[in-house]
Amino acid sequence: GAVVSQHPSWVICKSGTSVKIECRSLDFQATTMFWYRQFPKQSLMLMATSNEGSKATYEQGVEKDKFLINHASLTLSTLTVTSAHPEDSSFYICSARDGADTGELFFGEGSRLTVL
Amino acid sequence: GQNIDQPTEMTATEGAIVQINCTYQTSGFNGLFWYQQHAGEAPTFLSYNVLDGLEEKGRFSSFLSRSKGYSYLLLKELQMKDSASYLCAVMDSNYQLIWGAGTKLIIKP
Prior knowledge:
By secondary structure, chain A is an all-beta fold. Helices cover 0% and strands 52% of the residues of chain A. In chain A, a hairpin with a 7-residue loop joins strand 9 (90-97) and strand 10 (105-107). Chain B is built from no helices and eleven strands. In chain B, a hairpin with a 6-residue loop joins strand 4 (32-37) and strand 5.
């Protein structure tokens, strides 16, 4: 099946710094990628939909100035957590759909962010 | 509003069969997905149902009734490695996925 790669898998940073997470579709082109956040023992929460060549669509309650999303190419989307704080510590997961809107959703490995 | 309901936790015995139910109320329907997620890992795809009926894939089967807004995931011949969370997700009329909170399945020897 299709492969989505996410990097880094683990990141620890100091409060106030910014962290960038990359999501790549390795063997297919993804015009749309999705970014999720998952707190311990909770379900996935969609943060935003990343569209290649245009602005991301953010879910209600997600600060677009804090969570910057860039989808510069058909195989790469990045999520930058700006001025990170301890409450931003979470598991961030990206996903992409190969082909039609009803196609299977492939997930990256996830990135665990810990803000000290 | 849109809502996906599934049990929070279930326990089953190794070698047995378990059924995880999911009921949904969404604005439109373009299919229902089941994902498996082990602790600390990303979800992996299990099944996709868009028509009524049962889809069988090895030890796992998924059933859908659109008229009842109901699906279940059936796991047979349970193995210890099946201990995980199972997420039900529905694709609405805008092709957005609405996620359930997940069912934590505990397998006991």
